[in-house]
Amino acid sequence: MDHSEFANFLNERMRERGLNMRRLSEVSGVSVKHLETIFSGDENRMPSYPYLKGYLLKLGEALDFNSDEAWEHMKKFSESKSAGKTDELPKNRFSQKTSSKYFVIGAVIFLLFVYGIFRFYNISGTPVVVVLYPQENMAVVAENSVSLAGRVSNSDELKINGELVQSQTNGDWEKIVMLQPGINTLEITAKKFLGRETKVIRQVNYQPSTNTVPGTVQ
């Protein structure tokens, strides 16, 4: 994974959570200036390794990705580029052809390895669930139903209280849930093919209006 690919990855994770650069800076503790440098993908402007590693750790916590894994891939990519620049020229034409051949093979293997890592993440990564309504827990309503809405990403299956919910191509979803008087616990579960899942709990307090006529629906 080179810096430009990683920058695209970060931008996608930020969009999934509805964050802008300033809000991400507040959540992660990384200054907007440094975020803009990292998100630009410009290798020449990247912070030095100790600082970059610390920023990745904070971004991993804020955007829910494995910062250690991302750091290792970025470091290996940078080291392989540096090694290519400092290698001595071969002593004869035969060794030149051989070195070039192994360099190409090594580069292909490395790219396949990086691609495999990201494909594995797409298959087995942790789903992300954002509940847009109700945003707060223990919402109080006077009607006997509530329309849950939100967004899901990196998920193969979405359920609310065990009932399957279809999401749109952009990940948006909405579901009307009937309520019982009192506190109703709503469990939103997103699951990946290989078993990883994310659960979000919302509790809604249904307090029927005293003006409700029996047999009518609020």
Structural notes for this entry:
This protein has 218 residues and is α+β, with helices and mostly antiparallel strands. It folds into two domains: 3-124, lambda repressor-like DNA-binding domains (434 Repressor (Amino-terminal Domain), Orthogonal Bundle), CATH 1.10.260; 128-206, Immunoglobulins (Immunoglobulin-like, Sandwich). It is built from six helices and eight strands, in the order ααααααββββββββ. It has helices at 3-16, 21-28, 32-40, 49-63, 67-86, 93-124; strands at 128-133, 139-141, 145-153, 157-160, 163-164, 172-178, 182-191, 197-206. It has a five-stranded mixed β-sheet with strand order 2-8-7-4-5, with no helix packed on it. The chain has a three-stranded antiparallel β-sheet with strand order 1-3-6, with no helix packed on it. The chain is elongated.
